[in-house]
Structure formats: C-alpha cells, structure tokens
Inverse folding.
C-alpha cells in the first residue's frame, strides 16, 4: 500500500536532454562527461539560486520543484542561456503549476504529468508552460511567451492552452492555432498621430468600425476588437500577433486629424506568407468620414476575397450615419464597460445617456446602455435591482427595434431575457444574433451562459470555447472562464469547475461571483476549510453578499441545479 507522505501545490519543471540515446551511441564517454559537467557546474547551482529542489533524477532528465512559477521560469531561462555554447547538451523543458504527491520515494500528480507532457512537446532549447502557469506571471515575464493555442497532450484528458519560449519559427508554426478555413483577420487599434492625445478614441473608433463592417460577412473569421486592441502601445510585430491570435491577416493603421480633415493610412499584412497585401492612404473630411471607412473596408475585403464579396459590400453599408460627438462618447463608454468595476459602469452609463440623447438612432449605444443596467442589477450595484433589470430590457428592445440587423443589440436583448427568467427566449435571440454575426464572441458567451443555466453543459461548453477562440485576450475573459466553471458545476466535474473559477480570479481578483463558484465546488468536494475561506474572500469584496444575490447572479432554470448550488453555499458558510 502506498504511504503518502505529503501532497502540495507546486511549480514543477521537467527537463531532459534532447537526442540522448543518439548522443550516447555516437560517443558515450563524451556525452557522460558533458552531462556530468552540466549537472555539477550549471544545474545544481542554478536550481539552488532560485530556491528550487531536484525531486527526481532520471539520468538524462530531472524534475525540479520551485516555490513559485516565476522562480521556475527564471531558472529554466538561465539554464537554457548557459547551454547556448554547449552543442552536445540541449534541453527540452516543460513547466506547470499543480498538485504533487510524494509517496514510496517517488513523486506523482498533475504537476508532474503535465510538466512531463509539455517537455515532450518542446523542441531542444525551448520551454513550454501551461496556461495555469502563465496566469501566475506579470506582464514582464508573460511577454516572453508566445501563445501556441490549445494542444492535446498524451494521457491528459482535456486540451490545454500552451505558451512557448525559445522556439524556432517553424516550431511555432507547428503549434499555432489551426487557421480557420474562412479568411481570418485581426484589425489592430489604429495609431493616433494627431497632436491631441485625446483623439485616440477617434482612431480606435475608426478601427472598430472596420471590425464591425467586416464582421457582417459570414465567411470572415474576425478576431474581437477587445483581443486585437489589447496589443495597443506594445512593440509586437504583426507576425507575432497573428500567431498569438491564430489569424492569417493583420490590418494596421494610423489616423491623423487636423481640424475637420482626416488622413488614414492602412496596411494589410498576410502574416502567413509574410508580405504586404497592400498599403494605402486615404484623405477626407469629417462630413464624409463614414464614406472613408466604407472605402477602407471595401479595399480590405476586396484584397482578401475579391471573387464573391462585392455585392455584399453594398448591402452591408450602414443605413444611418451617427454624429461624430455621439460616436466618441460611445467609444469612451465602451472602454469604461471593459473595466468591469462599479464606478466604471456608472461612468459608462452617464456617457451613454449623453450619446443616445445626441444620437437617438444609435442601436449600439442603446445596447451598451442596456448592458450597464444589466450589470448593475446582476452584480448588486443597484439600489433597485428590479428597476435596473426593467430598464435593461427596455433599452435592449429599443436597440433591436431601431436596427434588427444589429447582432450586438440582439445579443443584449437575449441577455436581458436570460436575467428576466426567460431562458429559452434568450437562447433563440442569441442564436439569431450569431446568425447575424458569426464573429461576435459576446453572443457565443451569452448563449453559453443561457444554455448552462438551462442545464445543457455540453452545448454551453462548445459555445464558450468559440467565444474564447474568437477573443482570447478579451477584457471579459474572466467572465468567460467563470462560464466554463459553471459548465463543470452543472456536469458534476467539480475539480474542473474549481480550476476555471480560480483562473477567473487570477485574471480579475475583484470578481466576486467567481468566489461563489469556488466556495460551492470546494464544499461539494469536501474541502470545507477552503470553501469557507472563499466565502471570507467574497465578504471582503462584497459585505452584502447573500444567497439572494447568488440566485440573481446565477439564474438556474432547473430546480436541482439551484438547490445544489445553494446547498454548497450554505455548507461553505453563506447562510443568509
């Protein structure tokens, strides 16, 4: 019988010597000498420098435990740099943070298994880390890694998102997101070249409008603006961005505005073929700015798929030209919404009220206004939740009645239905929104949320994965991770639910509803001390947190799901 001496959470680095058997066959003595020298002169002192501990040695490989992911990554990079001038020894490395169990003079567990599989996937001289490990990094460390997309690892049940460092270009290509069959594009935030820094919202609005126009074409795979705009102000090349987001084309641009005159420069890059499709400059005045945007969009579409889109371009032209000042107010409000705090939502609401007053025909502005009321209701940020919910429904209905082809407005009307208890109506509207725009990640995420509350965790999981694929760097990604957690809860996969809820918290530590999910699933798993700690963390963020708020946050349609969730919260110590 196994005698378990200790179990703990740790960062585990797995490393082995690439082509070890071949090296031994060519020159056994030289290989052993080089290996011994590396172990004594580099491995042992470097591991000690970062407070690591070799927990298992396998001749040509090692498992090393570290107190943190950062220390493990810095140690791995130091070791790889030390081997640059040592051609005989090249290491493959993998790092993961997970449970480790020590028993019978051996080591087991998720931390070991995933690290070993990542090591096997790595090429000589590189380091692969899991998404779990990557979430523990700050921006300085995280920027060293390239997203390699979702990877299937041997004997690991679920695919994992993997990040790599030290990989060759060909290796990155092998691990890329699989490119969609449809033309795929990421439109980056346009640079503001105006002397007035406040014109950044104008430049972003130009790019956002191009994204919106492209998204109308069902044969395009368009990355969400929230992910593509996340590269703004960072010195990262188009090829790297395309690899990160799994697209073929990247559109870069700049805007210079002087008085009422505007100059837009744009470059369409085929990142896979590594060449410019075209570069062009457009000049215009504020009065015809939307004609200018249509011209730019037409150039992009015509360059990517000229054979069948020209007729659709004419049908997709906007019917109503909003006023520029209303548009800028809406752009500012949308930024505040993405911050997801009570104060930012209140500010967004104030800006949107001004915007829709200036432009009563803005379906997008009204949809966002509905969103702010819904967030205030669901998150307990309203003095009168029922009134906020009713206002959310009213504004969403106005938006759809104004433009029934606006997918975003339709999606928000679906969300309003969901939190009004009309789950099946919500599903129908969200399916309609996806039909209108198959590139809207918010529609997929809201559809997933509606389905999981109906009890269909499998279909919900399919849709939330699509949302994450369309916008892997979305500001609301923490919300989407929590929906994945709910999929695990409803399906009875509670350890998986805990993992995704904890991932949500790591990205957005102030997301109180994710603490509800952690508490429930920990309690169901019998981890009552950890469940009670999650409730204490929740109470620090939201002293008014209650069973009633949890019921409003998670409107399960099936009584068994609602009952099981409430029982979990009571067991965790939330008793009112």
């Amino acid at each position: 019988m196994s005698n378990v001496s200790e179990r703990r959470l740790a960062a585990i680095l797995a490393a082995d010597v690439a082509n070890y058997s071949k090296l031994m066959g060519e020159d056994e003595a030289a290989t052993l000498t080089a290996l011994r020298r590396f172990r004594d002169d580099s491995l042992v002192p470097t591991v000690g420098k970062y407070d690591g501990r070799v927990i298992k040695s396998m001749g040509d490989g090692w498992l090393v435990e570290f107190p943190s992911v950062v220390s493990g990554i810095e140690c791995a990079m130091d070791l790889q740099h030390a081997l640059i001038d040592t051609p005989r020894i090249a290491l493959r490395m993998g790092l993961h943070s997970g449970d480790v169990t020590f028993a019978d003079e051996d080591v087991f567990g998720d931390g070991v298994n995933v690290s070993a599989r990542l090591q096997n996937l790595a090429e000589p001289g590189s380091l692969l880390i899991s998404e779990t490990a990557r979430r523990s990094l700050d921006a300085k460390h995280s920027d060293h890694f390239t997203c390699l997309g979702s990877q299937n690892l041997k004997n690991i049940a679920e695919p994992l998102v993997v990040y790599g460092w030290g990989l060759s270009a060909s290796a990155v290509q092998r691990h890329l997101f699989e490119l969609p069959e449809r033309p795929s594009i990421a439109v980056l935030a346009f640079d503001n070249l105006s002397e007035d820094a406040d014109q950044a919202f104008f430049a972003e609005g130009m790019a956002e409008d191009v994204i919106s126009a492209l998204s109308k074409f069902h044969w395009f795979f368009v990355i969400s603006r929230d992910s593509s705009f996340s590269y703004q102000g960072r010195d990262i090349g188009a090829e790297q961005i395309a690899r990160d987001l799994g697209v073929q084309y990247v559109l870069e641009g700049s805007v210079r505005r002087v008085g009422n005159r505007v100059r837009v420069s744009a470059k369409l890059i085929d990142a896979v073929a590594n060449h410019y499709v075209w570069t062009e400059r457009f000049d215009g005045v504020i009065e015809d700015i939307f004609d200018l945007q249509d011209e730019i969009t037409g150039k992009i579409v015509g360059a990517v798929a000229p054979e069948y889109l020209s007729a659709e371009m004419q049908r997709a032209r906007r019917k109503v030209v909003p006023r520029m000042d209303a548009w800028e107010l809406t752009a500012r409000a949308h930024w505040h919404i993405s911050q997801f705090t009570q104060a930012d939502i209140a500010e967004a609401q104030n800006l949107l009220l001004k915007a829709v007053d200036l432009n009563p025909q803005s379906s997008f502005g009204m949809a966002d206004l509905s969103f702010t009321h819904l967030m205030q209701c669901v998150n307990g940020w309203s003095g009168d939740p029922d009134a906020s919910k009713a206002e959310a429904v009213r504004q969403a209905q106005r938006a759809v009645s104004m433009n029934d082809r606006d997918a975003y407005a339709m999606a928000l009307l679906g969300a309003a239905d969901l939190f009004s208890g009309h789950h099946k109506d919500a599903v129908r509207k969200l399916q309609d929104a996806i039909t209108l725009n198959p590139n809207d990640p918010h529609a997929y995420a809201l559809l997933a949320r509606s389905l999981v509350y109906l009890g269909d965790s499998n279909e919900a999981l399919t849709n939330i994965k699509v949302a994450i694929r369309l916008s892997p760097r979305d500001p609301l990604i923490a919300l989407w991770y929590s929906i994945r957690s709910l999929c695990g809860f409803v399906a009875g996969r509670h350890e998986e639910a805990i993992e995704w809820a904890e991932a949500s918290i790591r990205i957005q530590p102030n997301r109180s509803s994710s603490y509800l999910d952690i508490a429930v699933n920990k309690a169901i798993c019998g981890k009552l001390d950890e469940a009670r700690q999650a409730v204490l963390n929740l109470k620090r963020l939201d002293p008014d947190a209650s069973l009633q708020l949890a019921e409003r946050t998670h409107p399960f349609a099936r009584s068994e799901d609602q009952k099981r969730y409430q029982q979990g919260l009571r067991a965790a110590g939330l008793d009112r």
In short: Residues 305-324 have pLDDT under 50 and may be disordered. The chain has 26 helices and 14 strands. The first helix runs from residue 20 to 26.
